[in-house]
Amino acid sequence: MIKKYKTKDREKRREYEKAWRAKNKEKLAKRREENRDSINEKMREWKRENKDKVAASAKKYQEKNSEKISLRKKKWKEKNAERIWLLDKQYREENKEKELARHKKYLEENRELILQRTKDYRENNREKYLKSSLISAHRRLAVKKNKPFLWGHDAMDLMFEYFEYKCAYCNLSPHEELDHYVPISNKHTPGWVPWNHVTSCIKCNRGIGGKCAKHPDDWVAPEIRVKIKKYFQLWFLVMGQLLRNGEREKCNIHHNRKTH
Predict the structure, then answer these.
(1) pLDDT tens across 198-215, in order?
(2) Are 159 and 198 in contact (CB under 8 A)?
């Protein structure tokens, strides 16, 4: 009889309980606070005894609210990006061998998939991939020659825009290579920094080879030298502004920590 009554008036009871909870929020909160440990223990015990029921309920909720859950996770990750990064870094440092083994296992099991993804990325992001390859190659050289490395996508984009995607020396040919204004072989070179990089065509860059012993100010045409110097001054202004604003970390565009 009681079971029949409960089944019949389930919706009615739910509405009544909902209204009562809304009316007695403070009372319920106080009760939960006073009996937190016992309530939590009961919940844990109930979950242990009803694992299948809990799993089915969770699965049903996830299927019904997948978009809502994804959005909530995304917002939380954006809000806690720095915390996630620090925890991830700490975990990797504490579990180096475990992470290396996991990474090695994944590479062995998914070799073909990784190669296909890499190939697809290169085809769909050709310009970005070429820039990244160029930055990586120059970083390795900087490590090898023990020179400063402050270089990245933002610096490269600014350089291309300033020189209008043309050679900085002849201003005619389209840019094909990057050139160190003060060559790396020169003892006065500042290294891989934005105020030592300019765009160059192959002809001009190859023609500079024999002049490396001299400082560029001694052989670059005056009008070209003025334009290049203005570009370098622009970078000094950008860096100075960042330092004045206390944004020192932004000055290190792909900073190479192995160099001095």
Answers:
(1) 888 888 777 765 455 456
(2) yes
The alpha-carbon radius of gyration of the chain (Å, integer) is 31
- Residue 128: which residues within 8 A CB-CB, separation 6 or more? 153
Give the integer Cα–Cα distance in Å for 167 and 198: 8
CA 5/CA 155 separation, integer angstroms? 74
Looking at the whole model, is its pTM more than 0.70? no
Instruction: Give the model confidence (pLDDT) of 50-79 as tens digits.
Output: 989 899 998 999 999 999 999 999 999 999
CA-nearest of 234, 228, 232, 235 to 169 is 228
Amino acid at 151: W
Cβ burial of 170 (10 Å; 0-12, 13-18, 19+) is middle
The Cα–Cα gap between 89 and 85 comes to 6
Residue with tokens 């992001």: 125
**Which position has the token pair 């223990």?**
41
